[in-house]
Specification:
The complex is a heterodimer. Chain A is of the alpha+beta class. Chain A folds into three domains: 215 residues, 3-Layer(bba) Sandwich (FAD/NAD(P)-binding domain), CATH 3.50.50.60; 104 residues; 58 residues, no CATH class. In chain A, the strands form three sheets. In chain A, strands 3, 4, 5, 6, 11, 12, 13, 14 and 15 form a nine-stranded mixed sheet that branches. In chain A, strands 1, 2, 7, 8, 9, 10, 16 and 17 form an eight-stranded mixed sheet that branches. Chain A has a two-stranded antiparallel sheet with strand order 18-19. The relative contact order of chain A is 0.15. By secondary structure, chain B is α+β, with helices and mostly antiparallel strands. Chain B has one domain: Alpha-Beta Plaits (2-Layer Sandwich). Chain B contains four helices and six strands. Chain B has a two-stranded antiparallel sheet with strand order 1-6. In chain B, a hairpin with a 2-residue loop joins strand 3 and strand 4. The two termini of chain B are 20 Å apart. The relative contact order of chain B is 0.29. Classes of the chains: A alpha+beta, B alpha+beta.
Chain lengths: 431, 90
């Protein structure tokens, strides 16, 4: 029996829409379903789209996708109760060597879904897939509300909470080590005020990552603050295992702790809260990546665990796009032979191994042990604060060499110099 | 700003006939940690009269409670037919 579609794509985020666009551009009969109506209106991410992967399927993507601001200033900041210690990098070089744009996903993903439709894909919102459909062990489509819709291949791109893949036994359920809890707030602030506060002009943008080094002992969270045209995306990423062990703090309280920190409060001051959202953030690295393909299916984007953060650089949407395109290309080649078995689709894995997606995950294997560590969240902020405070304090006493001040700060923090140096070295190697 | 006030700015298309997440009150009754009440970013899990009270209507469908509960009480499905949270920005 002929399938109704060549491909059904489950999920209208960057992975799913990129796959659908690429497939439709190659005359593949593709159905894209998203459980939100309109498609994409349940999607959330921190909000910076790095890289140029979209350029492969939409050459003029910077005009088609409603991008907010071009990131020209990047900040990495350790926050302690009283202090903020930043590495702030702004460069005109980013105007010619574009690194990324801030984006708002509901607008961006709707534009991508529209583009898929224009290219000839069938796009339907408000469709909740219950499971994949199987016949003789092969995946032959999807089950939805008692109906089976058939296709030669299913691309699962349902995001960080992949119900269909989990319920169909195609990946193990999410655990504390696979994800972090992301909470985000959007504040409306006039464009000129944003430019003034963040030292930007025109459509230049700021992307800041933070370590919240002032939470109760043992609770670990990162923060982010990205400038959009006339809104700010502000959020926290909370480690579930630490929150669980602590057992006394709410994830939503950490969001509030972040926006009330003196150095953040002044940036969001006067802003009207436009939206509150929460979403899982894929954090598990290579050990969270499931089997990526099988007879009649491939898994892409967050659903496949494709995300990476070393605290300084956070990536996800670009991996989603790259993996969606790789899945589409794999299908296009499989279609030539009319073979959609696991063997034929294994090329997907090969494509990803050759691309930066799996290369990055391999290079930074175990990075989560550094990004989620008391070293990063407690020790480093504490020592840096002691050191910089002392360095900048004019107390009428004779000056000391920087190294001496640093060593003194280390011993005051209660750490052994040798073991700390060793730990820091291990951490640097992972990053 | 309180969490209730934050949730107040959100748009939902609530499915009155289908709760996409359900809990098993028997399991919750004797739960030693009640981590759901701390983990859920949408304040859907609260303790009332020493019992877990769960309201799916405020759920933003993040999936946290499904893995936060290590006792097998939470049954998680996606809302159907476009119901549930509807973001403006994302």
């Amino acid at each position: 029996m002929m399938s109704e579609f060549d491909v059904i794509v489950v999920g209208g985020g960057p992975a799913g829409t990129s796959a659908a666009i690429r497939l439709a551009q190659n005359k593949v009969n593709v159905l894209l379903v998203d459980r939100a109506d309109p498609p994409g209106s349940k999607n959330v991410s921190g909000g910076v789209l790095w890289g140029n992967d979209l350029g492969k399927i939409i050459p003029d993507w910077e005009k088609i996708i409603p991008v907010e601001r071009l990131i020209t200033r990047k900040g990495t900041t350790f926050l302690t109760k009283d202090s903020a210690i930043s590495l702030d990098f702004s460069s005109r070089k980013f105007l010619t060597n574009r690194t990324g744009y801030s984006v708002l996903r509901v607008k961006m993903d709707l534009a991508l879904a529209k583009k898929a439709k224009e290219e000839g894909a069938m796009v339907i919102g408000g469709v909740t897939v219950d499971s994949v459909a199987r016949k003789d062990g092969k995946i032959i489509g999807i089950e939805q509300d008692g109906d089976t819709i058939t296709s030669d291949t299913v691309i699962l791109a349902e995001g960080a909470n992949p119900r269909v893949a989990i319920d169909s036994g195609l990946r193990k359920p999410i655990g504390d080590r696979d994800v972090a809890i992301g909470v985000k707030q959007i504040y409306k602030i006039p464009e000129d005020k944003i430019n003034e506060r963040f030292n930007l002009s025109g459509n230049e943008g700021f992307a800041g990552e933070y370590v919240l080094g002032y939470l109760p002992d043992g609770v670990e969270a990162g923060g982010f603050l990205y400038t959009n045209k006339n809104t700010l995306s502000v959020g926290v990423v909370v480690s579930p295992s630490h929150l669980r062990n602590y057992g006394q703090m709410h994830s939503y309280d950490i969001m509030e702790e972040f926006v009330q920190h003196p150095s953040i409060a002044r940036l969001v001051e006067g802003g009207r809260l436009e939206e509150y959202s929460a979403h899982l953030v894929v954090e598990g690295g290579l050990s969270s990546v499931p089997k990526l393909y099988g007879d009649g299916y491939m898994i892409a984007g967050d659903a496949a665990g494709f995300s990476f953060s070393n605290g300084l650089v956070i990536q996800g949407m670009n991996y989603a796009i790259a993996s969606g395109i790789a899945a589409a290309d794999t299908f296009i080649e499989a279609k030539e032979k009319g073979n959609y078995t696991a063997k034929a689709l294994s090329d997907y894995q090969k494509k990803l191994e050759e691309s930066y997606v799996l290369k990055d995950l391999r290079t930074f294997k175990g990075i989560e042990n550094s990004t989620w560590s008391s070293m990063a969240h407690r020790t480093i902020p504490d020592i840096l604060e002691r050191f910089l405070f002392r360095l900048n304090l004019e107390d009428g006493l004779p000056k000391k060499h920087i190294l001496e001040l640093l060593l003194r700060s280390v011993s005051e923090s209660g750490h052994n110099k040798t073991s700390l140096a060793l730990e820091a070295y291990r951490m640097m190697r992972r990053m | 700003m309180e969490i209730e006030e934050k949730l107040g700015v959100l748009n939902y298309k609530t499915d009155k006939s289908y709760a996409h997440i359900t809990i098993d009150p028997v399991i919750c009754e004797t739960c030693p940690d009640r981590f759901c009440t701390f983990a859920c970013p949408a304040h859907c899990y609260t303790v009332i009269d020493n019992k877990i009270n769960f309201k799916y209507e405020d759920c933003v469908e993040c999936g946290t409670c499904f893995f936060a509960c290590s006792h097998g009480s939470v049954k998680w499905t996606n809302p159907k037919g476009g119901h549930g949270i509807k973001y403006k920005y994302g």
